[in-house]
Amino acid sequence: MTENYYTENMHAHKLYRAYQTGSKRIKQYLKAEISFVAKHLHGTEHILELGAGYGRIMKELSKNCHSVTGIDISKDNVEFGNKYLGGAPNAKLLVMDAHDLHFEETFDIVLCLQNGLSAMKAQPFEYIHKMMALASPGGKAFISSYSAKFWGCRLAWFQEQAGLGLLGEIDAAKTGDGVIVCKDGFQATTHSWEDLDAAGKASGFQYEVVEVDESSVFLIVAK
Fold it and tell me: How do residues 64-120 score in pLDDT, each as one tens digit?
């Protein structure tokens, strides 16, 4: 497997195509994640999104906040994304490694959505503290993964992507129990409700775990 699949293979136009799915249920899931976060906003927040890809979520949330900054490790994603975000003057993407964060400012909301911890190979027990270090007093971090109830739809979506040549062929023998493995080495894991609840407890911060749309599980941590 390449060192970072999202840098060397699934980026920019390929990543964009992955989200142009024909599945109504997947579209509902993607919209529900964004809507859930938007309901927590008042229009004044400075937001940071980690592992932001080409800015898909940022573009939608830019309508509901003061500013939104996104980081992604892929230079191609950032170049493509800043063009994609051209109509949102309060949104910007930066090239940065999510494991080597450097900001002078803090943010009201810090996001790691759409199973981002899996893509970044980050463990919630450790990564929550990186996120909360970037949160302003009174700020919140939002982490999301997939609901176990969504497994069939999620697997069908990845099979769709594999059929389009965006991912390698699904390795059926190794895929299951929340983990999707492709024959080109790609692997996507899941953090369960129990995983996120345990991470929230261990963080020492106030937190809650919420299932959304029977598709996402959110850990919300407050500073």
Answer: 999 999 999 999 999 999 999 998 999 999 999 999 999 999 999 999 999 999 999
CATH of the domain at 104: 3.40.50.150
Alpha helices (H) along the chain: 5-8, 12-18, 24-38, 56-61, 75-84, 116-120, 124-133, 151-163, 193-203
Q: Is residue 15 part of a domain?
A: yes
8-26: pLDDT as tens digits = 566 788 999 999 999 999 9
User: Is residue 135, in this structure, part of any structural domain at all?
Assistant: yes
Q: What is the pTM of this model?
A: 0.94
Q: Is residue 72 part of a domain?
A: yes
CA angle centred on 125, ends 27 and 214, rounded to 5°: 25
- Assign 220 to helix, strand or coil: strand
pLDDT at 3 over 60: no
pLDDT at res. 10 = 62
Distance CA(12)–CA(216), nearest Å, equals 24
Task: Classify 214 as helix, strand or coil.
Answer: coil
Residue 99 included in any domain: yes
- The pLDDT score that the predictor gives to residue 141 is 98
Domain with 72, as residue range(s), is 5-149+191-222
Q: Name the pairing type of β-strands 135-146 and 180-181.
A: unpaired
